[in-house]
Amino acid sequence: MKRLETVLVFLCMVVVLWSQNGVNLSQLPQEHPRYLTTPQGKDETWKLIENESWAKDVFEKLKQRTDKYTERTESQPDWLLSRLAMYWTSHATDVYIKGEVFDHAGGAKAPVPTVRYTGTRGTVATYGRPRLEDVKPYDDDEAGNVTFHNNTLPGRPLEKVHPSKTGRNIESLNREIVGIARDAAFLYWMTDDEKYARLAAGVFDTYMQGIYYRNVPVDLNHGHQQTLVGMSSFEVIHEDILYDLVPLYDFLYNYLKEHYAASMEIYAGAFKKWADNIIANGVPHNNWNLMQARYVMDIGLVLEDDDAYADRKGRRYYIDYVLNRSSIRQWSLKRLADYGYDPQTGIWAECPGYSNVVLNDYTSFTTLFDRNLHVDLTSELPVIPKAVSALPQYLFPNRMICGFGDTHPGYLNTTPIVRMIRNARANGKKEQENFFTAMLKCFDPESATQTETSGKVPVSIHSFFGEKPLTLDEEIAAGKVEDYVSPLFYAPNVSWLVQRNGMNRRHSLMVSLNGSEGNHMHANGISMELYGKGYVLGPDAGIGQYSYSGLDYLEYYSQFPSHNTVCVDGISSYPVMKSNHAFKLQSCYPAPALASLAGEDKFPPVTYSEVYFREPESRADQTRLIGIVTTGAESGYYVDIFRSRKELGGDKMHDYFYHNLGQTMNLTASDGTDLLLQPTDELAFAGAHLYAYSYLYDKSCTLTDKDIKATFTIQMPDKDDIYMNMWMKGQPQRTVFKALSPMTEGLSRTPGMPYNIKEQPTLTFVARQEGEAWNRPFVAIYEPSSAMEPSLIESVTFPEVTSNAEGSHVGICVKQKKERTDHILSSDTAAHVCSMGQMKATATYALWGKQGETDHIFFMGNGTYAETPRLTIKADKNINVLLENLDGEWYYTASGPCRISLDGKQYVISRAVEVKTLLH
After folding, report:
1. pLDDT band at 849; cut points 50, 70, 90
2. Where are the alpha helices (DSSP H) in 841-892?
3. How many whole angstroms separate alpha carbon 652 and alpha carbon 663?
4. Fewer CB within 10 Å, N- or C-terminus of the chain?
């Protein structure tokens, strides 16, 4: 009686929670199919095939692909199912692993063959799976081996081998077979031809019985892996075969109920065992949770209502778990969104690559809710459309995403945008449809003129349903890419900041700064990526050749020396993956903002940011000031001032690392004289430094206090070679290095690169400052150029700065070939009065630009006082002020009240002015 009361209380709670989410279970279909479509959807699908050439093409190819197997199974019913990877002989119920590697299977003997477990967590394998036609039927022996190809021998002979040497190929084999059965189930539903049902049912029954009688794997190491394992894969997020089994079961349900009635409870039990293990294992606070939730939701949708099962765990139970309930390793959709998304920026708390995975999953749930539950998920989670609208902030001007953390940079995935259009149409939200249609046409121009040409649509059952081609509203114009990005964007929850001066692929500049906050992050301090001439010239190194489980990842790609950063005493490091080491934004211009419509003045000619970072291993304080100075419609340069010192002193050295694309690097004194570099064994693990140092090779160096210039060259196929020119201020006790480091793995998969990234080591510059690097900071100017668009900088010098107080004071003079000269001042303390020639400033960052003898631009960043012969700015507190001379008239913006004296005239600015305004 007490148990019944508990169940009734639980059900009442569920009803209340459902009502909060607007889901009415009584309206959900009771018949099958119900996952991708409904029984009424058959007629709609046939009409689609009859009326749309692409649909007819997909259906015919799907049928042809499946028929070659039904021809075999009609004459030999076990031809396909006998090729499943199963414990055909042992009927093993228990699986044992050691960490990320399969060990053995055993336990009691099940009444039927059970599903064989995969070989390893990673994909690396010395043995490959055969083609389906070459798979040995009922492949099993007393040792539990499989018959696979030996990839290390000529001709790749088939050999008996322990599963631990086969990577994830066992999963791959089973998924291919179940995928064929899934397609056959769909074709049976469409045609009522039972040859398809017989093929599908044989495979499904064999596999699901084998899961039902097999237990969750046991980790003999008793380690973390035990909390990650799935029924078919080492990770519950890779129970990918469920993507095939769920629609297979749904389309085949009525046939199974008639011909396999005695096994229906077993099938449901197998699905529920799977769902329960996915809930019990995994990771709740990152992308894993969404992938886990999708599996559980999919299973729940094809199960019957709770009262159909003795344990009352059916459709309501599992759907509710995804929506409303949270356990130690599985959080509800809302709790996860609240944890991971910044509601202000729409940015997810992982690196860009994984953030895109999460957004793809959340928008997939949006489609599923619209289709299956008839509920608008975005009304409950408004951060979803906000996150989709924020996607372009990740983009460099060449439309590739930033590469920090465990990211493989690629072009923007527009699928979430498409799903927002579908969501808008499903729920009558015209404004949302207009916004995302314009956005889609901007980032996928072909979508606006999409034709139903055969061969463009994937040959998949999903192409007939949620993923069928979308016809856009012709009346909606494409947006401009500049409308979807900001000149300065800051996402604190991933410690990431972007500055850009436009989105022109060839001529715009952009810098991406990142710390280490969130998931899938590296130990990189204040890391920088620089863009120029169509490429991320100063890139992040990537993940490594074997993902984040490889030795090269652990020792090099995830560590400071692989990034464009500063490493202290050769030891700077901290935990990677889930990291909690963010930088703090000290000051910047313009203020961080969300995207807005691009006006004429959206991208100011000067941007800057200064961030602070505490490097925990060496207890060092670090700041990095990055500026972009736009000198023309097609020209500009970067300013980089990196200060670093240990809190308690005793600094041994500070190493400034910069990596650039290209095949050659030239390092000289700034006047072009030879530095007489000599081969060296420095930059090494020897000396109790990071292993990452040992990955650098072909090293040469010199000890010099001279200002230096480095030129990195990409030899382009069209002969318009691309250069990154770097000038750096010299200091006493500084050694500069020229070296090679491992290839830029992050870009190794990118199509259209000008050379083979995988085969080319990364050009690497290192400046080592003995002792502290705070009062002797690393000060550099970077300018992209090309053979056809040569460098506009004639010289970079570093004049002496005087001040009323001791500190880290920097002066830079950038003289250009078109008679423009920029004078730059920077101080570690905005209260210090600093002087350089005719320029004074009490500010973090100040710039005075002259065109010939005419003042052209003046900027005071985070300051209270600035002075040149013609100009004085005074403020009572630190503010930003920008003054531009346009056709003889001065325009300004100011972040707070100030007083300006220009050519003897006095101007009082009484409040903040964010829009460029005539000074009068």
Report:
1. very high
2. none
3. 32
4. N
Q: Residue 783 corresponds to which tokens in the numbers above?
A: 């300018």
Instruction: Give SS3 for 51.
Output: helix
| 691 CB-contact burial (10 Å; exposed 0-12 / middle 13-18 / buried 19+) | middle
Report the C-alpha gap between 572 and 324 in whole angstroms.
Answer: 42
Nearest of 485, 466, 457, 372 to residue 421 by alpha carbon? 466
Burial of 8 (0-12, 13-18, 19+ CB in 10 A): exposed
CB burial of residue 105 (10 Å; 0-12, 13-18, 19+)? buried
Cβ count near 471 (within 10 Å): 9
Quick one: pLDDT at residue 827?
Answer: 98
Q: What pLDDT is attached to residue 450?
A: 57
Q: How many CA atoms within 13 Å lie on the side-chain side of 151?
A: 11
User: Of 908, 844, 896, whose CA–CA distance to 872 is shortest?
Assistant: 908
Distance CA 900, CA 381 (A): 47
Question: CA 722, CA 715: separation in Å to the nearest integer?
Answer: 7
Token look-up 């012969």 returns 869
From residue 468, alpha-carbon distances to 415, 551, 903 in Å are 12, 42, 66
pLDDT at 432: 98
Q: How many other C-beta atoms lie within 10 A of the C-beta of residue 748? A: 17
To the nearest 10°, report the CA torsion of 829, 835, 838, 844: -10
* Tokens of residue 332, six digits: 């509800």
Give the pair of three-digit tokens for residue 16: 């209340």
Interval 722-769: pLDDT, tens? 999 999 999 999 999 999 999 999 999 999 999 999 999 999 999 999
Greater pLDDT, 528 or 9: 528
Cα torsion angle, 231, 237, 239, 245, sign? positive
Count the neighbouring beta carbons within 10 Å of the beta carbon of residue 892: 20
Query: In the 8-state DSSP scheme, what is residue 330?
Result: B
Contact of 394 with 401, CB cutoff 8 Å = yes
Which tokens hold the place of 372? 């299956």
Q: Please tell me the pTM assigned to this model.
A: 0.92
Cis amide leading into 590 (omega within 30): yes
Judge contact between 907 and 899, C-beta under 8 A: yes
Mean pLDDT of 337-344: 97
- Over residues 823-847, the mean pLDDT reads 97
- Asked whether the beta carbons of 744 and 542 are under 8 A apart, the reply is yes
Angle formed by the axes of helices 242-259 and 264-280, to 10°? 160
Residue 906, classified by CB atoms within 10 Å of its CB into exposed (0-12), middle (13-18) or buried (19+), is exposed
- State how beta strands 620-632 and 606-615 pair: antiparallel
d(CA 117, CA 164): 10
Structure-token pair, residue 567: 């490493």
Residue 23's pLDDT band, with cuts at 50, 70 and 90, is low
Token digits for 340?
């991971």
pLDDT reported for residue 25: 61
Q: Whose CA is closest to 340, among 288, 394, 296, 410?
A: 288
Q: Which two tokens stand for residue 165?
A: 């040497």
| Burial grade of 647 (CB within 10 A; 0-12, 13-18, 19 or more) | exposed
Tens of pLDDT, residue by residue over 455-470, are 689 999 999 998 788 8
Compute CA 805 distance to the chain's CA centroid, rounded to the nearest angstrom.
Answer: 44
Q: Which residues contact 818 (CB under 8 A, 6 or more apart)?
A: 631, 632, 792
The half-sphere exposure of 447 on its side-chain side, counting CA atoms within 13 A, is 25
Instruction: With cut-offs at 50, 70 and 90, classify the pLDDT of residue 2.
Output: very low
User: Which structure tokens are listed for 403?
Assistant: 């590469």
**CA distance readout (Å), 364 to 291, 415, 416, 421, 436:** 10, 9, 8, 12, 16
Residues pairing with 463 in the sheet? none
Confidence of residue 3 (pLDDT cuts 50, 70, 90): very low
Q: CA-CA distances (angstroms) from residue 897 to 335, 771, 864, 900? A: 43, 41, 10, 10
Q: Which are the contacts of 474, defined by CB distance < 8 A and separation ≥ 6?
A: 448
